[in-house]
Design goal:
single chain; alpha/beta; UDP-N-acetylmuramoyl-L-alanine:D-glutamate ligase; Rossmann fold; 3 domains; 9-stranded mixed beta sheet; 5-stranded parallel beta sheet; 25 helices; 26 strands; 19% strand; globular
Length: 719
């Protein structure tokens, strides 16, 4: 190794693997379809583990002058899969229609023999600028004799970048680094490996919840002891983002894509990728080497996530087009370029102390206002919600909110954290049900004011999971006179199931009284919900797989439904507790009006829900009002009309009233929504307080902001 100056060495070491990639070639054109022709597979190999990290680190730092590198024991091109010096990892790969190879199945690892002593010829330069360790829990962490001297006896000046895997925060290496140099230790791990520890971290509900769960666990859970004491901890969400927790900072940072949650970005393409965390580690290593005194780790995370997306999109491609010359492998040169190039920036948010969302503030009585409910939307809002709502209607959501989490499920869009979490909880239930073969129905309740979009929301959630096989059915129990009519409905449900489709059954107004009996229909659903069967005379009919959605008609929330009868005796007589015990989940749909339930606290975000709904309605029903320019579309609307549509105190029939006002307005052939387009006050009274609405239209002029920039709006109370 060439001579190097002080603090110019980069050491890479750790668990080295040889990755064996089984490429599933499938049937080829012109071949016979017998088993010899169809089941074609080719074995390819590449460096993995610490060897892949070394290739990436040397690649991304090749333009940094004066550095030299110490490599781990690198396998050469002649290595065989029975070479016990290395661990051998096996994966099955398939290519999509675009020729991109991605992992179809992880087959496992054949562990080699752990080295027992350090190579005597390994150079020892002290102190190195950076030590990068790939700890894959394959033996390196518990074999101190193989660690380089600079790692065994750290001087407190070198940065140590530790890429680790489950089980995390354990082993000799971890204890050694935590005791000797925590102030120079940067740890990188995936959220999946962290979840395999005894921690409780939500998955896919909202960025806010997952972020606060992680910060809580690493600072309070003894199982993850020490992670918060490192100089920095990076928890990776793959292609969706990462969390950075630094010991000296007042708040951890969430680097995220507002449009997706973890796992969603790559879900549309299918398959997985090998090398995501190695790519992220190399991006961080570049920032450390460039500025060892104060590395910009946020920049490293931005470029690292960008590069993992490049890796997924590009995939592993074959080295040429020869029929018999297929050789797939890691696209090293392209990933190095992706790490070096300026990335499209992801959003960054400070994560507040998790105590704020689960416990009263100091000096606050338990009976005081609810603890603070953190939302990134609130953090971005410093000028009030009305200007933001106006911009959403005028310029669209994507141009108005570029760094706030957006929940998109089918044609349903929301930025309200509580609504996002509720919808994704139901989505998770339906997804889990669709993956298994249980025959009894999945039962879900949905509540909301009339016209809030209860059926639409659940249907969008279900179709987002299995759009081809879902078939909605709706039965309004308020139109049934006797229980025998319910049997006819259940026969229709059964017939849809027998046809091979999955019935999505809306039992609308299920909480309506059966003549003379409040909640009288509940007891007739107990057997179908529990056993997936119904009785007709002496014959028992199986219903089959189905999703039952019980849509409330008289109760606006689950809490209101639970207390809809005055006494426990009445609730037991109506079988209310038995019915609730059979539900697997529920959803309170918020709608365009502010929530009135006292125990839910203030509802400041109703105006944002209105704005999103209004923009969507006008795009669909009056698209000619949009003026397209600069890659966007601006709505042409009178300031007073916009003010009234957003600020009227209540839409009498929820979303239906919003639709009706747009439909009743004279917009055909118009290029702008003017005051003269509105219906008369008497017609408006059908759906709003007409006098209030028109007073807002003609009230003092309030300029509608024309900017499309992402201004912040705030002053929002907690929920």
């Amino acid at each position: 190794m060439p001579e190097n100056s002080h603090n110019s060495q980069v050491i890479v070491d750790g668990d080295v693997t040889v990755d064996w990639l089984l490429a599933d070639l499938g049937p080829q054109d012109g071949e016979t379809t017998d088993w010899l022709g169809e089941l074609r597979t080719r074995m390819c190999r590449q460096r993995g583990g610490a060897a892949l990290v070394f290739d990436l680190v040397t690649g991304v730092l090749s333009d940094v002058a004066g550095l030299c590198f110490q490599a781990p024991d690198l396998p050469d091109a002649t290595v065989r899969n029975d070479d016990r010096r290395y661990h051998h990892a096996y994966t099955m790969w398939r290519r999509d229609g675009g020729g991109v190879w991605r992992v179809h199945q992880f087959l496992g690892v054949d562990r080699g023999d752990t080295r027992v002593e350090l190579d005597a010829d390994a150079p020892d330069h002290s102190p190195p600028r950076l030590i990068v360790i790939d700890d894959a829990a394959l033996g390196y962490r518990d074999a101190p004799l193989v660690w380089p001297p600079a790692l065994r006896e750290p001087d407190g000046q070198s940065w140590i970048l530790l890429k680790t895997a489950s089980p995390v925060a354990t082993g000799e290496l971890w204890q050694h680094l935590l005791q000797s140099c925590p102030q120079r230790l940067i740890v990188v791990l995936t959220v999946g490996d962290l979840r395999r520890t005894e921690v409780q971290i939500s998955r896919g509900l909202s960025w806010e919840r997952t972020a606060q769960d992680i910060v809580w666990e690493i600072t309070n859970n003894p199982t993850a002891e020490g992670l918060a004491n490192c100089a920095s901890l990076v928890v990776s969400f793959g292609t969706a983002g990462a969390i950075l927790h630094s010991a000296g900072d007042s708040a951890a940072k969430l680097v995220f894509d507002p449009q997706v949650m973890e796992g969603e970005w790559e879900a549309c393409e299918g398959g997985q990728m090998v090398g995501n965390t190695a790519t992220l580690t190399a991006a961080l290593a570049r920032q450390i080497a460039l500025s060892p005194e104060s590395p910009d780790l946020i920049a490293g995370l931005q470029s690292g996530v960008h590069a993992t997306r490049t890796l997924f999109n590009r995939g592993y491609r074959s080295d040429g087009g020869r029929r018999d010359g297929l050789e797939i492998g890691f696209p090293l040169d392209e990933i190095v370029r992706a790490i070096r190039e300026p990335p499209a920036p992801l959003a960054v948010a400070d994560i507040p102390n998790a105590y704020r969302s689960i416990a009263p503030a100091a000096g606050q009585d338990e009976g005081d206002e609810r603890p603070h409910f953190w939302t990134i939307l609130e953090d971005r809002c410093h000028d009030g919600l009305l200007p933001l709502a106006e911009r959403i209607v005028l310029d669209g959501l994507d141009r108005s909110l570029t760094d706030v989490p957006v929940g998109r499920i089918g044609f349903l869009t929301t930025v309200d954290r509580s609504e996002i979490e509720s919808l994704r909880s139901i989505q998770s239930l339906i997804r889990e049900y669709s993956r298994h073969k249980q025959q009894d129905p999945l039962s879900i309740a949905v509540f909301g004011p009339p016209g809030s979009g209860k059926s639409f929301g659940v249907e969008q959630v279900a179709r987002s999971i299995d759009p081809k096989s879902i078939r909605p059915l709706t039965f309004n129990l308020s139109q049934f006179d006797q229980p025998s009519e319910l049997l006819q409905a259940l026969h229709q449900v059964r017939d849809v199931g027998l046809s091979g489709q999955l019935p999505l059954v809306f039992w609308d107004e299920f909480d309506t009284p059966l003549p003379g009996r409040p909640l009288g229909w509940l007891k007739y659903f107990l057997a179908p919900m529990q056993d997936g069967k119904f009785q007709e005379g002496q014959i028992t009919h199986p219903i089959g797989r189905s999703i039952f959605v019980f849509a409330g008609g008289t109760s606006a929330t689950m809490e209101e439904f639970m207390t809809s009868l005055d006494s426990d005796l009445e609730r037991r007589a109506a079988k209310l507790p038995d019915f609730v015990s059979r539900l697997k989940g529920y959803l309170n749909v918020l709608g365009p009006n502010p929530q009135s339930a006292a125990d839910d606290g203030p509802d400041p975000y109703f105006i944002i829900r209105r704005a999103i709904l209004l923009r969507s309605l006008l795009e669909r029903q009056a698209g000619q009002l949009l003026k397209h320019r600069d890659g966007g579309s601006r709505l042409q609307i009178d300031t007073g009309v916009l003010r009234a549509l957003l600020q009227v105190s209540r839409y009498k029939h929820g979303i239906r009233s919003m639709k009706s006002i747009v439909s009743m307005s004279e917009l055909a052939g118009r290029r702008s929504f003017q005051r003269s387009s509105l219906p008369s006050q008497s017609q408006l009274d059908l759906h709003v307080d007409g006098q209030e609405f028109l007073s807002l239209v003609h009230g003092p002029h309030t300029a509608v902001r024309a900017t499309t920039s992402n201004q912040s709006v705030g002053g929002v109370g907690g929920r």
